From TrEMBL:
Lineage: Bacteria, Pseudomonadati, Pseudomonadota, Alphaproteobacteria, Hyphomicrobiales
GO molecular function: methyltransferase activity
Protein name: 3-demethylubiquinone-9 3-methyltransferase
Protein keywords: Methyltransferase, Transferase, Ubiquinone
Gene source species: Rhizobium freirei PRF 81
Superkingdom as given in the UniProt entry: Bacteria
Amino acid sequence: MSKIAPCLWFAREAEEAANLYVSLFPNSRIDHVQKNVIDTPAGKADQVLVVNFTLAGQRFMALNGGNRIEFTHAISLEVDCVDQAEVDRLWDGLADGGTPVACGWVTDRYGVSWQIVPTVLSKYIADPDPAKAARVMQAMMQMVKLDIAGLEAAYRG
């Protein structure tokens, strides 16, 4: 089990967000839902305060803080995807009600930033041939959702 667990602050959508996230990723589950034991700024007694969940094996906490604090791109969740089907499935699930950004980034309906990245991208941009790596970077910079076939075509020249 991971020692560090990111905490995501929501106004009142912690349980809804956690349920969406665990529905999208294998090896994911809701571990515990803690309700307020007294009235707090986060909500009344018996309303959800914290949701502890595991997402693809990584522990997370979703907190209902009572007021909205906007997420920014300064922190994002990167997802390593083995193939285009996984890229497409996760992208579609996270973009539903959210906002596609650029270069594989998508902001979900709660404002959390995600990077949906095919595994092969890091191999291509780390290639010792700088021309291959540059072509892949240039191709990636033109994409919104990353397309493995397009990255492979750029890599091959």
